[in-house]
Write a structure and sequence with these properties.
The complex is a heterodimer. Chain A has helices at 19-31, 57-64, 75-87, 102-113, 156-167, 188-197, 214-225, 259-268, 280-289; strands spanning 10-14, 34-39, 47-48, 51-54, 68-71, 92-95, 118-120, 126-129, 133-136, 145-152, 172-177, 203-209, 230-235, 272-273. By secondary structure, chain A is α/β, with parallel strands linked by helices. The chains are: A alpha/beta, B alpha+beta. Chain B: InterPro entries: ATP-grasp, ATP-grasp_succ-CoA_synth-type, ATP_grasp_subdomain_1, Succ-CoA_synthase_bsu_CS, SUCC_ACL_C, Succ_CoA_ligase-like_bsu, Succinyl-CoA_synth-like.
Chain lengths: 290, 395
C-alpha cells in the first residue's frame, strides 16, 4: 500500500502546453505514471507527444477517467484551475505553481476542505509513491520503494531527506511536498492520519520550517494518535525574525513560529529531531530503534 | 511589499476609512508650509520610514529628537522637520544602524478621547483573515499579546462577505464602546476588512485607532504590507514602492529573480531551494560559522542568475568564503557547474569556494569543475561542506 496515489492513479496535467507543464508531464510519464491527458483551454484536440489535450477538466475526466491532476497554470489562474478540478470530481489535486495570492487560497481552501478531495500545495514539488506514480517536479531516480513516509514544507530539502533514506536502505512509501505558502491544502496532521493507517509506512519523517504553527499542531497530534516512530527536522534555526526566507510562509512574525519553539514541541511529543539537515535519515533510523 | 504611512492613509481615504488631513514634506520649509495649510492649532510631524516604533525611536547622536513630534506653530514644524530629514532614525524595528528619514508627514491634530488598536492579518491556522482589536492602543501589540492576551479580541471573516454587523457589536461590547462611537465602528471596522481584501494586504494595522471627543473613529496610523504574490492585480502599486527603503543587494537579487536576505555573518551561501538554503545556514552555524546571507537561486537557475548571485554575494565586504550547496532535481548539476565556471571568469573569486553538488547529472558536473581552472574545494555532503567552509574562513 501507500497513501493518496499508486500504480492505478490516472493523472492529467492542467497547463500541459506551457513549457514547465510539458516538461514535467513527460518526466512523470517517463517515470511510469499513467499520464492520461492534459488541459489547456482553447487547445482541445491537440496532443503533447501523444498525450491528448482537452479544453476543460470535465471533458478530460469523462474521456480518460482521470482521478488526479497536477497544476502548472500561472498564479493568476491557479485558484480557478483548482476549483475546476474539484468541480470535475478529481480526488488528488497537486498545485505546483508558486506565487498564488493568499486571499485566493482562502476561498479555495474552504471549498476543498468541504469536499472529499485532497489538495497538495500550492508552491510545492508534488507527491510520489516510488516505483508506482510520480505527480510533480521531483527527480524520480533518487526515490526507492520502502518504508518511510516523508512529508515536507520544502522541495529540495525533501530531496535531501529522500536521498538519505534511500542511502540508508529504508526507502519511501509516499513522499508529499506540502508547499511553502501560508495556506496549503493539506497539513501534516492530514498526512499523519494517512501514514498511521497505511501498512507500508513503518516510520514517518516530517520536515518543517519556521513560520506558522503547523509543526506544533502536528506534534500534539503525534503524541495522542500516532504509534509509528516519527522523526523530524526544522529548517531555519538561524533565520532572523521578520524576514521572509524564500517561501511566503517561512517567516517569524511577532516572535512566533521560531525553530526553537517547534523543536521543543516536537521533542516534548517524543519525536526524534535531527540536529542538522545531514542527520535526517539517521534520525529516522534512531526513531525506529525506539 | 511595504508602503509609507502617508501612502496608506491616501488609500484609506479612497476606501472610505476615516483619516485626518495631512501633507507630506521633504524639506523643512515644506513642513512649515504644510502646517500653515492645515490651519490648525497643532500638527504632528511624523517620520516616514518602513518601520514601526517611530514615536519612541530617536535620531542617532541626538537622543532628544524623537521620530514623531507634536508642533504648535509653523516654526516648530520647520524645526522638527530639520531635526528629522536626512537623519537616521533608530527604532525597535530598524536595528542599531537606523533608517534615513527622507520624508515627513505633517498631519492635523485631533481631540483624542480613547486610543485603541486594530489589525488585520491572515490566521494561518484557520486559513482566514482575522480582525484583531484591543483597548491597548499605542502599545506594541506583540507585548500585549504576550503579557495580556485577554485584551486582544478577534473575529475571523470571510473575504467574500466581509465583517458581519453582529461581529462589530461583539467587538464593541468587549472594547466598551457604545452609542455614537459604536455607530462609527459599524462603518470603520467593515471598511477596514474590505480594504484588507480589496487591496490584497498581508497586514493592515492601525495603531492607534482613535475615538475623538465627538465620537468619530479615525485611523491615526496606517501600517500596510501588501501580498507580493498579488502585485500583478495592482499595477498602480509600482508607484508606491520606495526603493530607498530597501536593502540594495536584496533589491538587486529581486530584479534577477533570486531570493536573497542579507545577514551579519561572513560565509556567503548559494543554494537551490528555500528549505535547503535555510538549513545550509543552520548547518554552517552548527559547525561554528556565521552565514552572511540566505540565497535561493530557485529550481531553474540559469547562468545569468548564478553569475548575478555570485556578484551579489561577493559585493558584501564581510564575505570571507562562499559555500555552494546544490541538490540538482530539476536544476541540473551541469547547469550549475557551467554557470559557476562562467561566473568565475566574469566575476572572479578571491575567497575560498566550497562546492557540494548532488543529484541530477552530478558526475558530469563534478567533472566539469575538476577540469576547469576554478579553484574549488570539493565537499561530499552537507556536513563536509559546512566543516570545510568554516575551516577555510578561519573562524
Amino acid at each position: 500500500m501507500s497513501i493518496l496515489i499508486d500504480a492505478s492513479t490516472k493523472v492529467i496535467c492542467q497547463g500541459i502546453t506551457g513549457s514547465a507543464g510539458k516538461f514535467h508531464t513527460l518526466g512523470c510519464r517517463d517515470y511510469g505514471t499513467q499520464l492520461v491527458g492534459g488541459v489547456t483551454p482553447g487547445k482541445g484536440g491537440q496532443d503533447v507527444e501523444g498525450i491528448p489535450v482537452f479544453d476543460t477538466v470535465e471533458e478530460a475526466v469523462a474521456e480518460t477517467g482521470a482521478d488526479a491532476t497536477m497544476i502548472f497554470v500561472p498564479p493568476p489562474f491557479t485558484a480557478d484551475a483548482i476549483l475546476e478540478a474539484l468541480d470535475a470530481g478529481i480526488k488528488v489535486i497537486a498545485a505546483i505553481t508558486e506565487g498564488v495570492p493568499v486571499i485566493d487560497m482562502v476561498r479555495v481552501y474552504e471549498k476543498v476542505r468541504a469536499s472529499d478531495a485532497v489538495l497538495i500545495g500550492p508552491n510545492c514539488p508534488g507527491l510520489i509513491t516510488p516505483g508506482q506514480c510520480k505527480i510533480g517536479i521531483m527527480p524520480g531516480y533518487i526515490h526507492n520503494p520502502g518504508k518511510v513516509g516523508v512529508m515536507s514544507r520544502s522541495g529540495t530539502l525533501t530531496y535531501e531527506a529522500v536521498w538519505q533514506t534511500s542511502a540508508l536502505g529504508l526507502g519511501q512509501s509516499t513522499c508529499v511536498g506540502l508547499g511553502g505558502d501560508p495556506i496549503v491544502g493539506t497539513s501534516f496532521i492530514d498526512l499523519l492520519k494517512r501514514y498511521q493507517a497505511d501498512d507500508q509506512t513503518e516510520a514517518i519523517l516530517m520536515i518543517g520550517e519556521i513560520g506558522g504553527s503547523a509543526e506544533e499542531e502536528a506534534a500534539a497530534f503525534v503524541k495522542e494518535h500516532v504509534t509509528k516512530p516519527v522523526a523530524a527536522f526544522i529548517a531555519g534555526r538561524t533565520a532572523p525574525p521578520g524576514k521572509r526566507m524564500g517561501h511566503a510562509g517561512a517567516i517569524i512574525s511577532g516572535g512566533k513560529g521560531t525553530a526553537t519553539e517547534k523543536v521543543a514541541a516536537l521533542e516534548a511529543a517524543g519525536i526524534t529531531v535531527a540536529p542538522t539537515p545531514a542527520d535526517m535519515g539517521q534520525a529516522v533510523v534512531d526513531a525506529m530503534k525506539g | 511589499m511595504k508602503i509609507h504611512e502617508y501612502q496608506g492613509k491616501e488609500l484609506f481615504r479612497q476606501a472610505g476609512v476615516p483619516v485626518l488631513d495631512g501633507i507630506v514634506a521633504t524639506t523643512p520649509d515644506e513642513a512649515a508650509a504644510a502646517y500653515e495649510k492645515l490651519g490648525g492649532k497643532i500638527a504632528v510631524v511624523k517620520s516616514q520610514i518602513h518601520a514601526g516604533g517611530r514615536g519612541k525611536g530617536t535620531i542617532i547622536d541626538n537622543p532628544k529628537q524623537h521620530g514623531v513630534v507634536l508642533t504648535k506653530s509653523a516654526d516648530e514644524a520647520r524645526a522638527a522637520a530639520e531635526g528629522l530629514l536626512g537623519k537616521k532614525l533608530v527604532t525597535i524595528q530598524t536595528g542599531p544602524a537606523g533608517q534615513t528619514v527622507n520624508k515627513v508627514f505633517v498631519e492635523a491634530g485631533c481631540d483624542i478621547a480613547r486610543e485603541l488598536y486594530l489589525g488585520i492579518v491572515l490566521d494561518r491556522a484557520v486559513a482566514k483573515p482575522v480582525l484583531m482589536v484591543s483597548t491597548e492602543g499605542g502599545m506594541e501589540i506583540e507585548t500585549v499579546a504576550e503579557k495580556t492576551p485577554e485584551l486582544i479580541h478577534k473575529e475571523h471573516f470571510d473575504p467574500a462577505v466581509g465583517l458581519e454587523a453582529y461581529q462589530v457589536r461583539k467587538l464593541c461590547k468587549k472594547l466598551g464602546i457604545s452609542g455614537a462611537a459604536a455607530k462609527a465602528a459599524a462603518k470603520f471596522m467593515p471598511a477596514m476588512c474590505r480594504f484588507y481584501v480589496d487591496y490584497d494586504c498581508e497586514l493592515a494595522e492601525v495603531n492607534p485607532l482613535v475615538i475623538t471627543g465627538d465620537n468619530q473613529m479615525i485611523a491615526l496610523d496606517a501600517k500596510i504590507t501588501f501580498d507580493n504574490n498579488a502585485l500583478f492585480r495592482h499595477p498602480d502599486y509600482t508607484d508606491l514602492r520606495d526603493l530607498a527603503e530597501e536593502e540594495e543587494s536584496e533589491l538587486r537579487a529581486g530584479n534577477a529573480g533570486l531570493s536573497y536576505v542579507k545577514l551579519e555573518g561572513n560565509i556567503g551561501c548559494l543554494v537551490n531551494g528555500a528549505g535547503l538554503a535555510m538549513s545550509t545556514m543552520d548547518i554552517i552555524k552548527y559547525h561554528g560559522g556565521q552565514p552572511a546571507n540566505f540565497l535561493d537561486v530557485g529550481g531553474s537557475a540559469n547562468t545569468e542568475q548564478v553569475t548575478e548571485a555570485f556578484r551579489i554575494l561577493l559585493s558584501d565586504p564581510n564575505v570571507k568564503g562562499v559555500l555552494v550547496n546544490i541538490f540538482g532535481g530539476i536544476a541540473r548539476c551541469t547547469t550549475i557547474a557551467g554557470a559557476l565556471i562562467e561566473a568565475s571568469k566574469t566575476v572572479g573569486f578571491d575567497v575560498p569556494l566550497v562546492v557540494r553538488l548532488e543529484g541530477t547529472e552530478v558526475e558530469e558536473g563534478r567533472k566539469m569543475l575538476a577540469e576547469s581552472d576554478v579553484d574549488v574545494i570539493n565537499a561530499t555532503d552537507i556536513t563536509d561542506a559546512a566543516k570545510k567552509i568554516v575551516a577555510a574562513t578561519g573562524v
